[in-house]
Write the structure tokens for this entry.
Amino acid sequence: MIISISIPFSILVTLLAMNFAGITLNMLTMTGLILGVGMIVDASIVIIENIWQYRERGAKPRISAILGTDEMFKSVFAGNITTICVFIPLIFFKSQLGMIGEMAEEMIFTIVISLVSSLLVALFLVPVLAGKWISLITREERPLKWKPLILLDSLLQLSLDGVTRVYGVILRLALRHRLTTILLVAGSMALAVALTPRLNINLMPGFADSSVSLTVSLPVGTPLQKTEAILLELEYVVREEVRGYTNLVTSVATGRPGTSSSYTGSISIQLPEANKQIDTAETVKAKLRAHFDRFPDVSFAFGMGMARQMQGSADIDIALRSDDLDAAFAVANNIKDLMKTQLEGLGEPTIDLTEGLPQVEIKIDRRRAYDLGVNIKAVANELYAAVNGYTATVFREAGEEYSVVVLLREEDRSKIVDLDRIFANGTSGRVALANFASLEKGIGPVSIARENQTRIIHLSADILNNERAYMVEDRIQELIDENLVIPDSVNLAFEGSWRDVSDMGKTFGLIILLAVILVFGVMAGTYESFRDPFINLLTIPLMFIGVISIHILTGENLTMFTAIGAVMLAGIVVNNGIILVDYTNLLVRRGTSIHDACHLAGMSRLRPVLMTTLTTILGMIPMAFFGGENAMMIKPIGLTVVGGLSSATFITLFFIPVVYSLLNERKQSIDVALPGTPDSTEEVHAN
């Protein structure tokens, strides 16, 4: 009852703070609330469980509330602060995380506010309720009378007693064989590390797209009728083979017939929601790819899906930088041919530069032009006026204005030789263009891209299987080394998703390192010691056992949202260690031996540790397993918390007492039990 009151109170405080901060309820803030709900009750459970132990020993409600809260104050406070402080590095490195940092900011705010409110509730509201308003009543004081409740209570009590006894036996065994226990934990860590290469790593989680867009490009100058015929054939394929689409739009040549756009077209296929799709977006793409070989002179490119748009780059992105655009384009085409013919599992390689617009280059002999007294700017103006025309005047009639454009007649500018008959003003009169310039036919690019003032061409492709991007990049590099000679003027670099993952991974590695340092600092300040915080830090690596295991079992890929979950876990998993170590220290100060203190602390803290862990895990299970396609972005966070917290908690219950006994067995007990405080013997009977 007391804990159930603390949940809505903490949520209301969080919603109020969100309202003041101008934060709306959305998928990410709701994720923060879900995470917060799972952790909101942790501090209250620890406090109320310790108060309950004093009530079972016969202490009065008010005294139990004071003593129970006082004993757990340090560990509860440190546990919540460690969970909060791990988010500080995420805020500092938000700009380096790009869209992920922006998306996580509101979620972090929600979690932090919910944790702060839950800490205040646990330290101030829960003791007041437990000690005065809603006093905890033991079974001896008020036995149950309804038989179904008696049966249920007996079954629960027997289950808890059974778990406690089994745990006690295994813990005794672990404390007697400490080296074996440590080797088992180290072996589990090594196994998790060995299994990591089996997992694929992506920047963003996979999304079920609700549409497929296909762009079709034919050689420049292809008549509109031929482009339309190919698009209609593909449209027929869609109508015959694709199942469950809701809308189909075919577009041919966005401009006027005869213009440069007459050789392009597109097909857009709308699909229903993910849970109602018969053919998914990937299935539709596969069915269309099966017909691409029928059109050898046509280039195909699928539009970016939701994940690709958020990721910002293709799986494979080869950037070629050069001031010699022709050389770079030739290299790009050669690499594209190698990828299409010698690599399997790749989507359609696409070059973002389209070459093929016929053009005439007018090369002016500047010395000859100067000898004739011709100004180069005047030549350019004459050419522009003759071919494109210039506005000579504006004719106005009846309130309307008409521009009067003067240019050569169609028959005087329809052939290339007509350019030789254009005249420019010189110092000695009008001079024909043929006297100081030559004409050359050529092909020019449709567009030119620049990055950092350097011309650049991107050759991109998507990976259709689960092969890692860096492995595909290595294979492409081997093909290039074996078959091509890259000119010195062309600089080639891989800038696809793997580079983004590597850069982001380094940033998250630094974030986790800073989070661990902050956690250590908080615990060192709390304990006024470096030994006990070091023991608690050993729980952090244990979480990776569960993280790797749950991703292997579910077949999910590791993403950058998994890294966000790992950062959160760095602050969560130490809480159980803090509870165990803090209570062990309390028993040692009361005169209990190191070995017995480790065993008694584990037995005494087993119930709150299990309850706090289960509340967090149960709160994450809907997000991790039942979120549906619309929750794919936050699913990795839920999976990470469920897997990491499960393994860290289970191993912590045995590993932390073993490590504590190893590092403190030579330490002398310097404190004795305070007068009126139950000694260790009484605690054994109480438990």
